[in-house]
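Quick start: what a row looks like.
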Amino acid sequence: MRPSTGIAVIVSYFALSIPLLHAEDFSWKNTDTKIMVLYKKQKINQAIELAQKSAEKIKATKGDAHPDFAACLYRIGYLYQNNNKLNEAEILLISALQIQEKNFGFDHLSIAETLDLLADGYFLQEKIPLAQSLYRRSLRIREKAFGDSDIRIVESLDLLATASPYDESVKLRSRAIAIRENATEHNDASLAVALANLGEIHRLNGNDAEAAPLYLQALKIEEKTYGSMAPRIKNRLVELADIYKSLDQYTLAEPLYIRALKIEEKNNYKNINFIDFIINDLVEIYYKQGKYQNAENLLIRLLTYWDEWKSKNGKTQNQSQRFAIEKLANVMEKQGRHEEAERLRARSFSIQPENPGQTIVTK
């Protein structure tokens, strides 16, 4: 790790540019709450300024080796990191970590929090081995404090999994899921997300067969929690349907796409692009199975949706419509309706690409 020389430069800059807070008005705990309120209101610069003032006040009254000074550096590092100032954040977080280690030793829980944030920054910079080593150390601290099967270590397991190779990531996420399932008062929504995240790891590594049951389990939990037609489950339906489609399990994929489409239709077609994606996926399924009439009906329905959307929003024809018309022409062709297909292609050619040189690709 870097030495802490950078912190002296940063703190002396604070001293030159920012007036001190009055002692009678200052409490770090209360001030930190105010900082986070500003941050959540997206008043980032004001939050940073208040944190910087606090750093100078703590240094002047308690010294730069006090735990409150470390906590303040942590907060400024957090704000910098979330404002994409990763190098500045790294200097502050390393300094905060060194102060915490001197005050608390190497196994204090506040150190785990700092390790996690520092690791997050390395992960964002794609310094994966550094991130992994810090996440691993943070996990060991929490395991020592809480035990290796306590719900309070699952976040550390998940973080380490993000920076780990496939096989280790699967083991870590599976362990976190087992802990969640066995917890006396586990959070169903959190468990569903954890299952889907493990499924995503399998998907990213080309293992859709392993991913499918995990997404299905996540979906069942969310259906029980929110209802089978709740708007918030539509994306999970599509994710699972996509997996089944990739596995050529069309009879399993079709009803999921249809249910997601119905959920969006109940929402008054607010997300026309979502509808477009779902219908195109269904059309692909029907096309591959030779169900050309089903595909035709859906494409006509999609074009109607686009016409209604254009009318409401004062938009002109776009490439999504052109794709749909081209696909409809292909479906007509498959049914031997060549003249209708040619008329549709002529219509599609009248829609100019949004970008010069754009190629129209149809399934």
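That is the whole record. Residues 1-24, 355-363 have pLDDT under 50 and may be disordered. The chain is about 75% helix and 0% strand.
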